[in-house]
Each structure stands twice: as C-alpha cells, then as structure tokens.
Specification:
- With 276 residues, the protein is an all-beta fold.
- It contains one helix and 26 strands.
- The strands form seven sheets. Strands 8, 11, 12, 15, 16 and 17 form a six-stranded mixed beta sheet that branches. Strands 19-26-25-21-22 form a five-stranded mixed beta sheet, with no helix packed on it.
- A hairpin with a 5-residue loop joins strand 13 (123-125) and strand 14.
- The radius of gyration is 23 Å and the shape is globular.
- Residues 84-160, 177-262 form the Ig-like domain.
- Keywords: Immunoglobulin domain.
- It comes from Stegodyphus mimosarum (African social velvet spider).
Length: 276
C-alpha cells in the first residue's frame, strides 16, 4: 500500500480539485489558477510511505514548489575590470524566478556567447547567470553585453531592459587578490556536468588553484579526463555522489592571496526495492 504524509508526519488527505492520490499511489496536483494557489499545498514538503505485511519504508522528502507566472525585468549593469583579470557581468533578475530560468548572453553585434571553458576558451556562462570573461583586454570594452532568460516551464524569453558595458582600466601598481565572485553552495544531480567558478581582481593577474577538503586536509586538484581547470573555473564531468564535499579556490600573486569555499552536493535518484 502506498500513502503520503506531510512534513509533520500527518497522513495526507485529498483536497478536492487541488490535490489527490490516485489508486496506484501517485500524488497528483491538477492545473490550477493563480487564485487557487495554496501555500500549504503547492509549496510544501511530502514523503511517500510504502507498506506491506512485513513493514514500511519512507522516502526522502519531496519538495513541491508550484509556479505562479509573474512578469519580471532583466537588467545588466556596467562593470569595471583591471586589464588582464576576469570580468564578471551579472544578469539581474528577481529572486522569485531564480529557480526556473536559464540564461543566455549576447554581444552588441548580436553574436551569442556560450561557455567555452572546457575547450580552453575565455567565456563562461554560469547556471546562476554570471558571464565570466577571462584575461580581459581593451577590446572587450568596445562592445556591450545583454542577457536573455528563458523560463523552463513556460518557455517565455525575456530580454534585458539594458545592456552593460565593460570599463577596462589599466593597473596602477601591485595589488593582492580580492575575490569578487563565487558561490557558497552548488547542487547537481548524479551524471551531470557542472562548472564551479571564482573570480578575483589583482595585479599582477593572479594564479588560480582548486583544492578539495578530505579529512581536514587540502588536496590539490589536477586536470584529467573528468576534471578541467581554467583561470578560476573548475569543471567536473559526470559527477557522482562521491564528488560531494567542500572545494576551495585559492587565488594568489606576488602581492598576496585570497580564497573562497564552495560546498558541492550531488544527489542520486532514490532506488527502492520491495519484496513480498
């Protein structure tokens, strides 16, 4: 027998027209209008319970978060960068839409920008919308950059209301690295590929190294058939649960050092085997 419980452990009951359990045990949420949205139903945590005469097994938590379509603006602001460093352009969107969109970037001449880090290129488009341009030159400041978002559920494309420009400055003396962009937490599903990145400003242009924390020690990561490192970007191919852990980006030059910490969590599909 299959049943469902809420986060507090109470057995789930059907809500007419909003939520019901089918005879085969599937939990169903029919299409609904914005007026029918219910926080406790459409933005809630559920668990599945499978029971037979021998006993019961409970699934992991299932997080349901329904989307009510809302209009939003996309903005790109100007950024300053010291020549030779990594520029970071940010695609600004409201928090309520973060989890449901993918990002695309274009130059002022209409050319699309795609991630090329895995091939040794200068561009990275991160899942969170940032555009990294490595080893910036004055030529990178001669064009503008615009962002587009695509809603995963509705397919709607929204173009940034503004285009940003890079103001490339010349260095004035040595400066120690200061990390200006990184992610504290990164999540992925088993089998996916991902890019973790950090960017710093410094002169001379800094060197980046990635480490993984293992039993309290920092282990230097080296590039191989599954791992690629390029100026602050760490690309992992076909991740597994064993890749979960704490990663450290260390940035240094002759003037000093800075570092950032990223926690990677890799999830695997739940597999349940029930025998009579």
């Amino acid at each position: 027998m299959i049943s469902w419980t809420q986060q507090d452990g109470n057995t789930l009951h059907d809500v007419t027209g909003i939520r019901h359990t089918r005879p085969d045990g599937s939990l169903v949420f029919p299409p609904f209008s914005a007026e029918d949205f219910r926080q406790g139903v459409h933005d809630a945590v559920y668990r599945c319970v499978a029971t037979n005469i021998v006993g019961s097994i409970i699934s992991r938590e299932v997080h349901v978060k329904a989307v009510v379509q809302r209009r939003y603006k996309v903005l790109v602001y100007d950024e300053f960068v010291v020549r030779g460093n990594t520029a970071v352009l940010r695609c600004q969107v409201p928090a309520f839409v973060h989890d449901y969109i993918t990002y695309m970037w274009k130059r002022g001449d209409g050319a699309s920008i795609t991630s090329t880090a895995s091939r040794g290129g200068r561009y990275s488009v991160l899942q969170t919308g940032q555009l990294y341009i490595r080893a910036v030159t004055q030529a990178d400041g001669q064009t503008s950059y615009s962002c587009q978002t695509r809603h995963r559920l509705t397919g709607e494309i929204t173009v940034s209301a503004s285009a940003g420009r890079l103001f490339v400055t010349e260095p004035h003396g040595n400066s120690s690295p200061k990390i200006i962009d990184f992610r504290q937490i990164v999540s992925a599903n088993e089998g996916e590929s991902l890019e973790m990145a950090c960017a710093a400003t410094a002169y001379p242009p800094p060197t980046y190294r990635w480490y993984r924390e293992e039993e309290g020690r920092l282990v230097l990561l080296t590039s191989n058939h599954r791992i690629t490192q390029l100026d602050g970007s760490l690309i992992l191919q076909f991740v597994s649960v064993q890749d979960s852990g704490r990663y450290i980006c260390v940035v240094n030059n002759t003037a000093g050092e800075d570092r950032s910490f990223t926690l990677l969590t890799v999830s695997a599909p739940l597999a349940v085997y029930i025998t009579p």
